[in-house]
TrEMBL record:
Pathway linked to the protein: Cell wall biogenesis; peptidoglycan biosynthesis
Ranges where the Mur ligase C-terminal domain occurs: 370-502
Gene it is expressed from: murF
Naturally occurring in which organism (per UniProt): Streptococcus suis
Protein family per UniProt: Belongs to the MurCDEF family. MurF subfamily.
Subcellular location(s) per record: Cytoplasm
GO CC term (a single one): cytoplasm
Name under which the protein is recorded: UDP-N-acetylmuramoyl-tripeptide--D-alanyl-D-alanine ligase
The protein's Enzyme Commission number: 6.3.2.10
Cited function: Involved in cell wall formation. Catalyzes the final step in the synthesis of UDP-N-acetylmuramoyl-pentapeptide, the precursor of murein.
Top EC class for this record: ligase
Residues noted as binding ATP in the record, renumbered to the chain: G169, S170, N171, G172, K173, T174, T175
GO biological process: cell division; cell wall organization; peptidoglycan biosynthetic process; regulation of cell shape
HAMAP family for this protein: MurF (MF_02019)
Domain Mur ligase central: 167-346
């Protein structure tokens, strides 16, 4: 089993602005898990739709249908608001550096107290700020700024009457969200969660940043702890919800799949009686199911089924039991057929014509690094699935990669990194991946991380000598540069190479290195 040299571990991650449209040297907020430079991400999303730069910026700056006095009344301001004019507010920001003329600033407490940046917000044109203390500038006094942000988002959804479709799940929630958005956008003015804005800050921020003509809002909901999704569902009040999978994601915080399922099912807490909840036919949830919503199961022998499936290297063609004709997807992975089936059913339920659904799925544009084929600089084929990882997701992508025929004269290589947040079961769950690795299919396997070391040792006993490499990443050392070097050394022009690991393992940077 190969090894690498020591190098300094990077403890902080810097996020470059997408398409380098906006300079971003701002670090990720460790409390919210949200990229600070969200403006760049949303701008790039808009530009990808084909509009010009000027129009893209104008879309970013759409005015909310809220005024200063209205916000104060909704939040039960504890100070005299009559001192300030009833200004129309432009948008909400929690980063003072992104404040523009007429904005509402929300000072949140994270690694630093957002109240410290109120002067900067007003220098940048802030119209009014929320605050938990008295100030000498226009402010709305509240007990808790985060709770106020959430309350304002709930009010705004009620005021605008936008229909919310909510998506959660251990795997596939972002892909399914993207698919649902693209299907609905054929018929309705539709907005969706941008990036990973799926928590107690990101969701209300998304609500308050949706274009003012939005008809359907597709919201992704994430959970780290029990109760997270309950809160998000109570804010959003979805009319239709989807749970993609009851898996092992965040097992460290839940302890068991049963507790994970309990948390995911809280997506129904904000739903009205009779609304539809789509969920997998998994017995893990049978004793936990809510009784006030209509349950639609998907999977084998369930209400919704993929009835035929043909998979190629970079596409899927399949049929479903509630729609006539083939559905084509320009992505691989059998699990994506299930995700697309769910999106198709959501579209059908909400009145999207079948042909419009098929057209949207055939031209799908997914969030980057989710089962995405790319080309290395030397011509090799890269299958990048590095946005996140858990045992179910890793098994599925290895199954997909193994089923794809190798290129003529080429090898199949897998680069696997740690799956995070698996708690006390982490090492065992990593080791179980040995059942998904076969020397008859894979020529070389490269491992990177800490908890994955045991799996690397098991693989070294099964694969020929010199076909398994391990590079360490822990608090003491990070052999990342040696990992990149080894990948470049083993990768031939006719090869196929898979990358899979949790986002924090930075395999995306390895992909970038071999693309250059």
């Amino acid at each position: 089993m190969g090894a690498g040299k020591n190098s300094t571990c990077q403890k902080r991650v810097r996020l470059p602005a997408p398409a380098q449209l906006i300079r971003s040297d701002l670090e990720c907020n460790t409390r919210t898990n949200l990229p600070i430079n969200h403006c760049a991400e949303m701008l790039t999303q808009i530009l990808r739709s084909g509009v010009g730069v000027n129009l893209a910026f104008s879309l970013l700056e759409k005015t909310m249908k809220l005024t200063l006095h209205e916000v104060a009344q909704v939040l039960g301001a504890k100070n005299d608001i009559s001192l300030y004019p009833d200004t129309a507010l432009n948008k909400v920001e929690f980063d003072s550096r992104l404040i523009t003329e007429g904005d509402l600033f929300v000072p949140l407490k994270g690694a630093r107290d957002g109240h410290d940046f109120i002067p900067v917000a007003f220098e940048n044109g802030c119209a009014v700020t929320l605050s938990e203390v008295s100030l000498d500038v226009p402010y709305i006094l509240v007990e808790d700024c985060l709770a106020a942000l959430q309350q304002l988002a709930a009010y705004y959804l009620e005021k605008t009457g936008v229909e919310v479709i909510a998506v959660t799940g251990s795997n596939g929630k972002t892909t399914t969200k993207d698919m649902i958005h693209d299907v609905l956008a054929t018929t309705y003015k539709t907005y969706k969660t941008q990036g990973n804005y799926n928590n107690e800050i990101g969701l209300p921020y998304t609500v308050l940043h949706m274009p003012d003509d939005t008809e359907k809002l597709v919201l992704e909901m994430g959970q780290d702890h029990l109760g997270d999704i309950h809160l998000l569902s109570e804010i959003a009040k979805p009319s239709l919800s989807v749970i993609t999978l009851f898996g092992e994601a965040h097992l460290e915080f839940f302890g068991s799949r049963e507790e994970i399922a309990k948390g995911k099912l809280q997506i129904a807490d904000g739903m009205a009686a009779g609304n539809k909840l789509l969920l997998p036919a998994d017995p893990i949830a049978d004793k936990l199911l809510p009784s006030h919503v209509e349950l639609i199961r998907f999977g084998e022998q369930a209400d919704l089924q993929v009835t035929s499936l043909v998979e190629s290297k970079d596409s899927l063609t399949f049929t479903v039991n509630f729609m006539d004709g083939d559905i084509f997807l320009p992505v691989t992975g059998k699990y994506n057929a299930t995700n697309a089936m769910v999106a198709s059913y959501v579209g059908k339920t909400l009145g999207v014509p079948d042909e419009a659904t098929k057209s949207a799925l055939a031209s799908l544009n997914l969030t980057r690094n989710r089962t995405e084929w790319k080309k290395a600089a030397n011509g090799a084929d890269i299958l990048s699935d590095v946005y996140n990882a858990n045992p179910t997701a890793m098994r599925l992508i290895l199954e997909t990669f193994s089923s794809i025929p190798a290129n003529e004269g080429g090898k199949k290589i897998a680069v696997l990194a740690d799956m995070k947040e698996l708690g006390s079961q982490s090492v065992d769950l990593h080791n179980q991946m040995i059942l998904s690795l076969s020397p008859d299919v894979l020529d070389t396997v490269i491992f990177y991380g800490q908890d994955i070391e045991g799996l690397a040792q098991l693989a070294s006993q099964m694969f020929p000598l010199g076909k398994v490499y391990f590079f360490r990443k822990n608090e003491e050392e990070d052999q990342f540069e040696d990992l990149v070097k080894q990948v470049k050394e083993v990768l031939g022009a006719q090869d196929q190479i898979l990358f899979k690991g949790s986002n924090s393992m930075n395999l995306g940077k390895v992909v970038e290195a071999i693309e250059k």
